[in-house]
Design goal:
The protein is an alpha+beta fold and 284 residues long. It has nine helices and eight strands. It has three domains: 91 residues; 74 residues, SH3 type barrels, CATH 2.30.30.60; 99 residues, Alpha-Beta Plaits. It is elongated and about 110 Å long.
Length: 284
């Protein structure tokens, strides 16, 4: 017996731990069998009480087995846990950007931020969505600036991680028609009512062919989303941006894919009015 214990103490740690684990498991199994037999032979306890004791004994022995295994294999478990944490941390650091891109794709998809063909702006980059993968989104750039609706001829590939920290502005969320703004800067001493009428008449002429369709489209979107339908009739507002300068802001409905064409048609129509010199009262 002493020789066997001496041999066991001189053996590698895993051998002694394995033997201790076997002894622990055997003790738990034997202890459960003996306690269960004692409970079943008890004539004073009701069947419900016996089942309750059996469940408590089983759970107590399982907890004891778990504690014993942790005590026996504690050092090895700590080493494995540290190794697992180190590997996991290295993987997260190495694949951080990939994880963020996939997370951005999931976030955008769950929120339905845009679809292929929509005109969006993300992190100051504006254009039409051309392609999207699990990691990147490709857009056909539109610009320069927010008032231009022409393609620049460049494609921009965005990492989808941008969707985690930047707002997605979808300019074609209504798909068919949008409310488009045209800003016309003028001098404050200009004949503003005349210029306002010119802008409004040009907008009415350009939108008359599709105004009814735009109204129905906005009403359908409002009812489906529980919102009050927006007025689509063209209107002009005046903004005083600085002393001596003003902006005439024209709002009108426009087909989502033809905003640039309609804006150019309106500006070319009112351009003669904008460049006409102001005639002072009393002049010959």
């Amino acid at each position: 017996m002493q020789d066997w214990l001496s041999t066991l103490s001189d053996s590698p740690p895993w051998v002694s731990h394995t033997v201790a684990t076997l002894i622990l498991v055997l003790s738990v199994v034997l202890g459960r069998g003996m306690l269960s037999r004692w409970v079943r032979r008890s004539t004073k306890a009701s069947p419900d009480m016996q089942r309750r004791w059996l469940v408590q004994i089983r759970n107590a022995l399982l907890i004891a087995l778990l504690i014993g295994l942790i005590i026996i294999w504690g050092a090895q478990l700590r080493a494995v846990a540290l190794s697992a944490v180190a590997i996991a941390a290295a993987l997260v650091i190495a694949t951080k950007e990939l994880i963020m891109c996939v997370s951005g794709t999931i976030l955008e998809g769950s929120g339905r931020g845009f679809s292929i063909g929509d005109r969006v702006e993300v992190s100051g980059i504006r254009g039409d969505v051309f392609d999207q993968t699990l990691l990147t989104t490709t857009i056909l750039e539109v610009g320069p600036g927010h008032q231009t609706h022409q393609y620049t001829g460049r494609t921009v590939t965005l990492p989808n991680s941008l969707f985690l920290t930047n707002a997605i502005i979808n300019e074609t969320a209504t798909d068919e028609y949008v409310l488009h703004l045209i800003v016309v800067p003028v001098k404050a001493d200009e004949d503003l009512p005349r210029l306002e009428r010119a802008l409004l008449n040009a907008a009415v002429n350009e939108s008359s062919s599709y105004l009814d369709d735009a109204k129905r489209n906005m009403e359908r979107i409002g009812s489906s989303r529980g919102l009050k339908s927006l007025s689509v009739e063209p209107r002009v507002t005046v903004q005083l941006v600085e002393p001596g300068r003003a902006n005439l802001v024209l709002r009108l409905p426009a087909p989502a894919r033809r905003r640039g064409q309609i804006e150019q048609a309106i500006l070319r129509t009112v351009l003669p009015e904008l460049t006409r010199p102001v005639v002072s009262e009393g002049a010959d």
